[in-house]
Specification:
With 274 residues, the chain is of the alpha/beta class. 25% of the residues lie in helices and 27% in strands. The chain has seven helices and 14 strands. Strands 1-2-3-4-5-6-7 form a seven-stranded mixed β-sheet, with helices on one face. The longest helix is centred in the C-terminal third of the chain and has 14 residues.
Length: 274
């Protein structure tokens, strides 16, 4: 299953039902959310951002095959070393040719592997953070990823994070990949519209955004949040994204809609919402 945002960007993945067994949403949540991974394409080059949940393995792999061909070449970038981002790596490695694997932090994504294919990928791994994480670590490091000549995904470590987390910025599509932030989009049914845009504005409030944000970042209500607000405002003013692409929840698209949800996030991080 995939949805086309443009010729150069598609979103893959599937829906899961919300409930108290889902740890990253507020207790009492109902409805459905999407688990998202994203495929950037430039000519014959492809970069997959995250790999989605294992429960959506077939949707992700079949969507990839439709876009890049069975057994095709793809590079992979993980925004976080958590299972909702890395779970399908082994299955992708079995079915496709992974050219490069971009990771950050000290958690080894190959811990999720249980067969010899992990050894073939070790030599293709590139560290995306700019400082050493393990003494003697000689991995190649970069804070940008070349999708293809002339097409670069800029990478930064956000101020708002729990584990090592990375956001990506694709200037060509105007998409900002926000990992586990801006994950508040909810659908009424599993086959619902997976976007928040002019056609589906919804009735989201700062309180709703805050509830989803604080479910993951439970320490935030007690934190000094002004630096986070300032960092978010500066980042969005500098990049002016057209798309907010989180790893979970609805994709937010259209500059006016993006700006409205930024304002909701900034309000959620104010001292008036807790």
């Amino acid at each position: 299953m995939f949805n086309t945002l443009s010729n150069e960007l598609v979103v893959l993945g599937g829906a899961y039902e919300l409930g108290d067994n889902v740890s990253w949403v507020p207790r009492g949540s109902t409805g459905y959310q999407m688990s998202n991974c994203y495929l950037l394409t430039e000519g014959t080059s492809h970069l997959l951002i995250d790999s989605g949940m294992a429960v959506h393995r077939d949707l992700v792999l079949d969507g990839l095959a439709e876009r890049i061909g069975e057994g095709g070449e793809v590079s992979v970038f993980f925004t976080r070393p958590e299972m909702d981002c890395v779970s399908n790596l082994e299955s992708i490695a079995h079915r496709f040719d992974i050219l490069r694997l971009f990771t950050g932090g000290v958690i080894n994504p190959f811990d999720a592997f249980d067969d010899v294919s992990r050894f073939a990928l070790r030599g293709r791994r590139q560290q995306i953070d700019g400082t050493r994480t393990v003494e003697g670590d000689a991995l190649e490091r970069s804070m940008s990823i070349e999708v293809a000549p002339g097409r670069v995904l800029d990478v930064q470590s956000p101020l708002l994070r729990l584990l090592p987390t990375f956001w990506g910025w694709d200037a060509k599509t105007g998409a900002l990949f926000t990992s586990d932030t801006f994950t508040h989009g909810v659908m009424d049914r599993p086959d619902g519209y997976r976007f928040i845009d002019d056609a589906n504005e919804g009735d989201y409030t700062a309180e709703h955004v805050a509830a989803h944000l604080f479910a993951k970042y439970e320490w935030l209500p007690r934190a000094t949040k002004r630096p986070l607000r300032d960092w978010l405002a500066e980042t969005f003013d500098r990049l002016d994204p057209e798309v907010i692409a989180p790893s979970r929840g609805s994709v937010i698209r259209g500059r006016l809609t993006v700006r409205r949800h930024l304002e909701l996030m900034l309000a959620a991080l104010s001292d008036d919402v807790a």
